[in-house]
Amino acid sequence: MNGAEYLIKFLEEKEVDIIFGYPGSAVLSLYDALYKAIENNSRIKHILTRHEQGAIHAAEGYAQATKKTGVVFATSGPGATNLVTGLADAMLDSVPVFAITGQVNTPSIGHDAFQEADMLGVTLAITKHNFLVRDIKDLAYTLESAWQIARSGRHGPVLTDIPGNIFNAEIINTGKVYYIPKERKIINSFEEQKEKIINLLVNSSRPVILAGGGVTASEEAPGLMRKFMEKYNIPCAVTLMGKSTADISHPLALGMAGMHGLPAANAALKKSDLIIAVGTRFSERTIENPELFSQTKSIVHADIDIAEISKNVKAEIPVVTDSAEFFRSMLDIKINKIPQWQEWASEAIKAKEKLNEKMIFSGKLKIREIIRIVTELCENSEKNGNISVITDVGQHQMIAAQETRHKNPGTFITSGGLGTMGFGLPAAIGAAFGKTNGKVILFSGDGGIQMNIQELATVRKTPVPVKIFILDNNRLGMVRQWQKNFYGGRYSQSILDDNPEFVTIAAAYGIKGVKLSSRRKLEDNIKNILDSDETVLVHVLTDPEENVYPIIPAGKSNREIMPNGEVN
């Protein structure tokens, strides 16, 4: 077989069922091998997106929804460089992506050949690892290495750049290939730190768990964390990427903390004397002022990536371990007298009750109003079970993070670290291809949806319906809000007063479209949309002056929270 055929065989052996991609001249041999494999009843399906950025975000959405590795193909030059944003996004959010890009023939590398780009140089800082295959003898080991690296330790994207002549070259040895990772000395293991952790725990009066994306990424960690919460009666706050790890209906689950976090979660972090942080990097959107944050509390920081521990916030006890293993070990520790922290837990739960306050909406439709209705309808309907919520980036993203509720881990998918506008639609497509039943709900803004709107052509192919809510305020909403709060109301280039008719665009792609602009039968209309078994684009006209609160201004502590537009 040639290199291209070997690559397809390799993916079949890894039980890959979905590849997202877009062909070009440098990968024609690869796509020819794929064609032959599909003709011979391969399990692999290829999903042709309409842009390479759409392909990699779809691979991310698929990976997060299924906890498998997302696979993406792109051609050389512009095809490969169009993956860059998605690679950076996957790197920051620790999403396992296996990216294959074509490259010009090996003799032409470095000679400015047609559609040549140095993908090793371009992607060095935004991938977990990258490879350029210069010899067919290296292909098998390189592919195995790339696959294992993407999934080992802290997950992330790995790119393998393959010249056209390598795809066409005959591969001789097709026996079993093993990747042997470099041995690394484990320091700060749980066993080494156990006694210190126990000492902090038994002497704490106000402990809080802070769960991040590392918990979400694990099959076992969310369930183990819940057992740990209940065993010790410890409240739990989550980061944006950890949002679906703790069911908000659980009394001890306080919701998202951070810049736009819920008051109960931020208050618990502020008042705590011990933070048990797991699978989080303490980004500045979670902890606005690291220096102030760590002055009055002890921090146990458990993460599989040693580089993240104490990078942003100094940890008193660093623990290098997988999130599931950490909670499993915490459940196994022996404490003679287990503190219950009843008064502390009751205080946190009482602060959380404000979440359930009834809000009266007036004037133009509000983003929060729509997301709240969708959330309540999904929660109260058996037909709307098994739902994944995807967001784009902006005001709707933060409101969705505050309002949506999730029974199952991994059912809230968003772009956290990079904050990529245009992520939502292709990620929703990827998540939908990862499901065999249920449905996917996408919340997007009028700005973000237009960045990859061409993927409306791809969304028609999904095996489950996608409900696309475009929350259109004719603004780059978050930009406008910051301009209002921090730039004297000077709205420079943040007004989108020339948006298209999205329902008409949906019709052009063969998708049903609905426009909502008033409260007349609003809940009934949304219920009908959610209950239908087809993909629907819902264009909602919302209030251009709506803001997202609370907000902690950048660089401030959570003592300087703006609950309703003014510093408290």
Describe this structure in words.
The chain is an alpha/beta fold and 568 residues long. The chain contains 22 helices and 18 strands. It has helices spanning 3-13, 28-39, 52-66, 78-81, 84-92, 119-123, 139-151, 164-168, 190-202, 213-216, 221-232, 263-271, 290-293, 323-332, 342-352, 367-380, 395-403, 424-433, 456-459, 477-486, 502-508, 522-531, and strands at residues 18-22, 45-48, 70-74, 97-103, 129-132, 157-163, 207-211, 236-238, 253-256, 274-278, 298-303, 317-320, 387-391, 412-413, 439-445, 466-472, 512-516, 536-541. The chain has a six-stranded parallel β-sheet with strand order 2-1-3-4-6-5, sandwiched between helices. The longest helix is centred in the N-terminal third of the chain and has 15 residues, at 52-66. The protein is globular, with a radius of gyration of 24 Å. The mean pLDDT is 93.
| Number of helices in the DSSP assignment | 22
Classification by helices and strands: alpha/beta
* Rg, Cα atoms, Å: 24 Å
N-to-C CA distance: 68 Å
Helical content band: 25-40%
The averaged pLDDT comes out at 93
CATH-defined fold name of the largest domain: Rossmann fold
What's the level 1 CATH class of the largest domain?
A: Alpha Beta
Could you give a quick summary of the protein structure above?
The chain has 568 residues and is of the alpha/beta class.
Keywords:
Rossmann fold; globular; alpha/beta; single chain; 568 residues; 22 helices; 3 domains
